Amino acid sequence: MILGTTQALPLAAQVLAYTSQRSKPAVASEPATQMKLVDALIHLKKHYKADILFEESMMSDVVVTNFNLDKNRSAEYNIEQLLKHTNLVLRKVRDNAYMILPRRPQIAPISAPQPTGTINGQAEIRAKVADMLIKGTVTDATGEGLPGVNVLVKGTAIGTNTDVNGKYEINVPAAESVLIFSSIGFQKQEIIVGQRNIVDVKLATETATLDEVVVTALGIKREKKALGYSISEVKGEELTQARSTNIANSLVGKVAGLNISSTATGPSGSSRIVIRGNGSISGNNQPLIIVDGIPINNDNLGSVAIGANRDGSWTGSDRGDGISSLNPDEIESISVLKGATAAALYGSRASNGAILVTTKGGKADKGIGVEVNSNFLAEDLLFKTYKDYQYEYGLGSNGVKPTTVAQTATRNSFGGRLDGSNAMSYDGVERPYVAAKNNLRDFYNVGTTFTNSIALTGATEKVTYRLSMNDLNNKGVLPNNTLRRNNFALNTNGNLGKNLSFVANVKYINERNHNRPRVNDSPGNANFTMYVLPTSLNVDVLKNAQTNAAGNEIVWSDNQYTQNPYFATEKFQQDDHKKRVIASFEPKYNVTDWLYLKGRIGFDNFNYRYKAIEPYGTGYVLRGSYTSSLRDFTEINKELMAGINKKFGEKYALNVFVGGNMMKQVTELNDVSANNSFNIPFFYDVSNIDPAARTVTEAYIEKRINSVYGSAEFSYNNYFFVTATARNDWFSTLAKGKNSIFYPSFGVSFVASEAFTMPAAINFLKFRGSWAQAGGDTDPYNLSLYYSLSGAHLGSALAQINGTRVPNSGLQPLTSTVSEIGLETKLFNNLLNIDLALYDRKTTNDIVSATISQTSGYTSALFNVGAIRNRGVELLLSSTIINNKKFTWDASFNMGFNDSEVQKLYGDLQTLRVDQSRPGSSFIHQDIGKSYSRIKGYDFKRDANGNIVYNSQGLALAGDIKDFGSGVSPYTLGLNNSFSYKGITMSVLVDGKFGGYIYSGTNALAYRFGLHKETLEGREGGVTGAGVTQSGEINTAKARAQAYYSNWYSAIATPFVYKSDFIKLRQIILQYTVPTRFLGKMPFKGASISIVGRNLAILMKKVPIIDPEATYNNSNAQGVEFAGTPPTRSYGVNLNLKF
């Protein structure tokens, strides 16, 4: 609540009048009464749950009569009616937050008001004429004129305030006079007049004046100072200026403790979001995504799960997740609830935290407001040439230049030295034997993204609304890869009667993807071919020699699965189409001014269709293959809540609510697949599939959770807050008697700076602490055996056990216990702001999938045995370093550190293998006593002194498995600087991660095929490895370079494990906002244009060739990459117009 602020205003601006007796009665209103204006405003605040900021002393004697509260109208309307016949005006700060300011006097300058009586309800004012006339304009940091700013000559009662455009005029006694500029919500500024006649001023925002309001669990808005836990909020405009097609990627570097990894699968790929470390060994570790109070499905619909094959091969494409489909233009803010305390009211599904997406609503402006946003981005490869590749030797093996077609059938670049002479190509044509350094530039496109949106906002007498439409049209850097997405949204808010209001939202998303990039060595992955293309093979040759006369693929190498990249992108077909509806309806009934009832029904449904064709004539599957998948998902949440929000006297307040939720999820699957099965060439329809080769799978999956919850917040004098919450969930996925779990939480917040007098250097000081428990369940159908029909015998279908995991009917919910302490302080007149948090999170009874002997007929089993602990620190520093009338420099720095430790696995098990890389020499493990996601792999065989051991051919031998480190970086940081000069603002974001490792399969490929520059040694005379023989003597054997380096690929991991540390220039935004004074004769209310860039440069990295953030899935197996889409950067322009 923001009431009765004590910030002093110039007496000259505190001219008030008593209201006249001409107020008209309103319809559907409360009876007219006579009361003080202050009391009337407090009444409005309670009714609308609004923040109203004013100087109480300005209106202590003002009385309003015959005022009728019209509950069918907005807060803004009723406040304006109250102020209609006063010298006060209303200024809207943000949605549901207002300031009341003195109306600009009609005469200037004026002396302090000295009422000597009243004439027609107006106080008499004595004006004093001064000696020097000073003019000027007062603006905010963006150059917008500020109305209602108080301008006072220091030491006198001479003052005025600015008009609607921020302009003012004032007479001052002398050149030595000091002007004081002040306004609620901005920092006060003092300026000596001197010999100037024009004094322009820029005011900086006063961060400590307005109590910040944030969106918390269940969509409830609360003052940030009342929270006993850490919460971070990102405003919607930060997502649209330098936008990403997946809004999760727009959060990178902006929130302490938030670790986001993007898959190397193009613009429509998914992301992995982890808050404060991984809390489950083999289960879900991502937060719950909530849109306008409705949980949405964020599953990856086609993840690249290397564990599916246990060798990391042939794993298809990443088909995106739920958050990647959201439209950033619709978003008002994103709140990151970091711990179990923050998200406790969401129960088990938010045990890893929650991300709350709040979309924009309607506004009660005059007429219909129109906002248009148009954005263009170009996307290009960050590296046009692989600087870590060698360009001295060409295609061939063992130092020999190919002179026959048979010798060209290789992927190796261990051929002869490139000398410009003619060499044979795989199509039988001789071409110059030279380096093809422009293959990346020639094959990949400059991608483009056009995004256009329009939003209409307005209001009727009872309803406010916002209707928005968005069109995104993307062409990827990979040829023939496109994304088209349309988003439609309607948000309404209204009153249905005296005490009944509602909020209703509906969103429709229509997304079509064509030829998403494949990853790993999946057939059809053009990226893989481009990584291994021999040095001397020009990609244009492949473009012109794809198929033979019969239309069959011409295989260019000795491996038919490494395909011509043009054949892969032009002949392979992969399409997916997702239609999604997210809707909610939330009625609220105010039983009294302190008791309310609220309901909510939420609906999330998507229909997903996927079809993939491997064409007829493909080298490895001559009759082609067909795959189609239909997935229909629906989640319905029904919720009912009752609450009390009441003050007791002047100092005590209580906010209590209780509620219940019923959640139901239904997933229906229908898959059809057939391999080597098309009867008629090049006719790709399911009717053309050989029936004997067709496999059809259907599934119905249902899950339910029933819940009750409650919260109670007690506050004393608006500086001491105690909050307790509780929730109980009952799961359908667990057995009766073991399917219930209770989650308590407790938090305390103490604002010391409002309780005690602080030193002048401390403007704000808050201490906070919290404790909570959360839990989690498992997927459906893990308790018992279930069956399916497959194949036929003698005309009848055969029944079989479905699944390879042993069921466990004794599974219980896991438990996650979290404690947190922190402080927030603002120092030196808000020059330095500090937010510090320390947390400790421990998961016990974790549901772990453990590998078992395949002789049992199964591959794994589930057990309640795991334990993992995360401890960490988060720090946020922000400052306005420079703030003068022309230039402002704001800076913020965030840092997160997470120390994870796996503490328990199944039985006596000390290590658990989670996944394996494609080359087969490295693995991802969870080890007791170690941090999460350990990269392990075969080291060189070494003697007692650490020397590498070689065989008689001079080849290094593989030794024991070595632990290289964690695939998850414990340190994350972000640094943002914003510079404003007049109407121009430039912001620069740099971020980084430190302390992690990565196994690079792409570098392993470069060594295997002689592409890496480190393989140049020994090309002419052979390589003698430094080390010893098996008998302990110094190694003197020379090995051919090809055998020496390619030997490491599948046998030894050590050369290909690197530190994944990096620092990136993540984004730059240069924006010009047209000042209000220039828009007077134009049809616009606001206009801005921005030049933007994202992922512009990697300032520091330690891994060659690849992006150190590269990963090809969003699973728990982090720290492995292999042949993903090359890193890209984007740059473009954004135009925003408001009518």
CATH class of the domain at 235-359: Mainly Beta
Assembly state of the chains shown: single chain
Give the rounded overall mean pLDDT.
84
Overall spatial form:
globular
Overall radius of gyration: 34 Å
Q: Quote the CATH topology of the domain at 235-359.
A: Ferric Hydroxamate Uptake Protein, Chain A, domain 1
What is the end-to-end distance? 32 Å
Beta-strand residue percentage: over 45%
Low-confidence stretches: 1-32, 104-130, 305-313
Task: State the share of residues found in helices, binned by percent.
Answer: under 10%
Specify the biggest β-sheet.
22 strands, antiparallel, barrel
SS-based structural class? mainly beta
Quick one: how many beta strands? Answer: 59
Second CATH tier, the architecture of the domain at 235-359: Beta Complex
Counting H and I runs of at least 4 residues, what is the number of helices? 13
